[in-house]
């Protein structure tokens, strides 16, 4: 009995500091943000009404969903291609694929966005070269628009899509694939009718992770969009710091959290958390 | 036994993706060597002036030192909190574990911009009580970074604890070890690697944190990413290219050493 009690005490003592810290430094201020959304500038549901009627907010929401959808499709497809090699290639191919996935993964989002600016801007690598070989006379507008945002976000999110895909591909039984080939199925057909369907949980997981991440993305769109292709996260920033309208910024945040929460709940109905690592 | 290898079509597509992934990292190299004051490709001669600017301009050095200080403090804080919490979960397996762990992981899954506005609310409220901890102070930034890194540290600790054999702890307990002795002399030495990794990851995440930092600093607590952000938004400063090259080289070296060490351990 004594040991049971001291066990409970020990657990409480060990777990309390972190829980207390997060309640005070995260949960409580989040409730404060929720309060802002109902009280600033005037108490009531005015901010949520504005969300439904304000044209700017609406267009930003739609743009965010559109960009997130495109980015999700492109990054999951690209991640799939490189993950196949990372998981199933020869040792040398695996090493190269791992290098190409992990190096960008560990490099900061700012450096990567800057790399795209260096490539895509008017005086950047691509435009300089295309002009030097006389292919174009005026620089192409590759950045400060939606194209630049999609490229940069896809680049950022591919490594995140790789991990759930790799976990699905590793758990796949080789013999099934060899059986399909042995029965006379072509490489293409084996890939599309056996390999891809058997990694479905990885694809769903990767797509969900990428989609959820892109909804709240801030740094890459702000740099590569150059203020012209504003997404939800940047709109929140602008509402807090540029046209001080804290209530609206807070209301958008609350809606974003609810939306992401609903998506995660949907995700976990199909995929177990362990399959995502 | 034959294995199922990717065919030529897969290899070509994967190579294109690999090129796409490396391209922006390679593009910063020529830009960092431009003699021009603005972002441009070097035409003809190369120059190291932007590397020199990093050393000579005190702003860069100051922000690097500030980022290191914030990184060390927030990483130490979140590693200790995450370690205690994970030990509690593993040793006592309390009821509602899933809910408690889920709560701790929230800052990792909530969109970063929402965490940012939340921490902005926290620090501006604290500014009223204390000039050390509030908005735009280094301690405030360190605390905010701890909130953001503690879920990652916790995940790493829980993963390395899950690989630990419970019987060694049961043996220690049976032989009369106290909770403190079990934690410090039995469990912690066995998850040393996980603890070090958690501390390192927390430091790296704090070192490169920008989404939250942008909301909670203005003129005093200028961390390195914050300074880079300022140079990227207004007039693009090629010194950022020089800095990026250095950061990329460090990352590649660290990864190479890590994979070498992992190979040695495996062999």
UniProtKB/TrEMBL annotation, chain A:
It is a multi-pass membrane protein. PANTHER family: ABC TRANSPORTER PERMEASE PROTEIN, INNER MEMBRANE ABC TRANSPORTER PERMEASE PROTEIN YDCU-RELATED-RELATED. Keywords: Cell membrane, Membrane, Transmembrane, Transmembrane helix, Transport. InterPro entries: MetI-like, MetI-like_sf. Pfam families: BPD_transp_1 (PF00528). The keyword Membrane applies. CDD domains: TM_PBP2 (cd06261). This is ABC transporter permease. One of its GO terms (cellular component) is plasma membrane. Belongs to the binding-protein-dependent transport system permease family. CysTW subfamily. Coiled coil: none annotated. It is found in: Cell membrane. One of its GO terms (biological process) is transmembrane transport. Residues 61-267 form the ABC transmembrane type-1 domain. The chain crosses the membrane at residues 65-87, 99-119, 147-166, 203-226, 246-268. The keyword Transport applies.
